[in-house]
Amino acid sequence: MPFRHRDFRLLLLGQTTSQLGAQVSGVAIPLLAVVTLDASPLQLGLVTAAGTIAFALIGLPAGAWIDRCRRRPVLVAGDLVRAALLATIPLSAFLGTLTIAQLVVVSLLAGVARVFFDVGYQSYLPSVIGRSDLLAGNSAMETVRACGQVAGPGIGGWSVTLLGAANVVLVQAVTFAVSAASLLAIKTREPAPLPRQARIGAEIREGLAFVARTGLLRATALCSAAGNFSFAIASAVTFVFMARMLCLSPTMIGMVLTAGAVAAMAGAAITPRLARRVGSARIIWLSLAVTGPVTVLVPLARPGWAVGLLVLGTAAGELGQIIYAVANVSLRQRLCPERMLGRVNATMRVLLMGLFPLGALLGGALGEAVGLRPTLWVAAAIIVLSPLPVYWALRRIRDVEDVPHWGRNSTA
């Protein structure tokens, strides 16, 4: 079990604090834009898009570069940079100079740091716990992340009401600093990266080619990209929908998000057991096929008791996505060759997140053009269809052990 590893516990501690802070500010920043700065759906879409566009711009070279170096220093730097950037938001609010433009710039630069952290993190975990414990390790990490999701939105909504949204963002800056400290305390030495002979452009092309010729990677990329695209569309209008159409207070919005996070925590915790019962490969597509149709309840929500439809649809979506994410990432970490892991993770992140800015902008534009509720219907329809590529690729495979190893000529 991964909990035997002291260094894994340290990694878990850092992620616990940073994820709690991320969930708190995940409520605070949209509410800051909507309530304090009176942002339109399009402006909120710009803030959301700015946080993810870096994946499309620098994701591929970041992955190739990470394969050339040890990953822990990259993770520490990513945490510290994000802490410093987020600290400027409450400072500007105190000085009375905070604007939507600053939120966009901070989101953009923090997104650059996130690219290096996310790619490095997924490539670093096998060095800490070994590949045999990856499913349990990813499950534990996602359970902790979901615990932050449970507490974070409720704390965020309550804190916004009590302290103001700008001040709450400072919480995440502190948690990123704590995460950096926990990473520095890890003693496991990473193996030295293999010397590279090729230019970085050639290595990027090698990573792209590996994903392109590996059928299962192509399928999961399409599935995950569709899910992220749907979430991006919804993200541009969801907070406006809850605050203005459902008349929910910041505290109530936090409670709605907490309900979804409870479902995510449960999903992360039960993923290893479900994988053993259903199949560690089969659960990847089945989790989305079962929960996806329930998300169509979200646009049916109305003020009053029908807000429960929003809660149920959100919870179902979180449950399915977290089970899918744990099983899918564990499969990739286990079967991908070590020397390619950074580039493959980067390629996948670019494919997944590259559509996010477009989705956020599209969601903002749709929200203003056709309304908030029709935009949520579009997002729900995409989620329902998203598992089809993975189902087609894995329909005859039950467990990860049955998937051919992704060697040079793999077409799995």
Key features of this structure:
mainly alpha; Growth Hormone, Chain: A; globular; disordered C terminus; Putative MFS family arabinose efflux permease
What does this structure look like?
- It is a single chain.
- This protein is mostly helical.
- The protein has one domain (2-187, 197-402): MFS general substrate transporter like domains (Growth Hormone, Chain: A), CATH 1.20.1250.20.
- 78% of the residues lie in helices and 0% in strands.
- Helix 9 crosses helix 13 (341-353) and helix 11 packs antiparallel against helix 16 (388-394).
Short summary of the structure?
This protein has 412 residues and is mainly alpha-helical. It has 16 helices and no strands.
CATH C-level name: Mainly Alpha
Radius of gyration: 20 Å
Shape: globular
Structure annotation, total helices: 16
Q: How many domains comprise the coordinates? A: 1
CATH topology: Growth Hormone, Chain: A
Q: List the uncertain runs.
A: 408-412
Q: Mean of the pLDDT scores?
A: 82
Largest sheet: none
| CATH-scheme architecture | Up-down Bundle
In percent, how helical is the residue content? Answer: over 70%
Which helices and strands appear, and what pairs or packs with what?
Blueprint lengths: L5 H31 L4 H10 L2 H14 L5 H24 L4 H30 L4 H30 L1 H20 L15 H14 L1 H31 L4 H29 L3 H10 L15 H29 L5 H13 L1 H15 L2 H14 L2 H7 L18
Helix pairs in contact: 1-5, 1-6, 1-7, 2-5, 2-9, 2-14, 3-5, 3-8, 3-13, 4-5, 4-7, 5-13, 6-7, 6-10, 6-12, 8-13, 9-13, 9-14, 9-15, 9-16, 10-12, 11-12, 11-16, 14-15
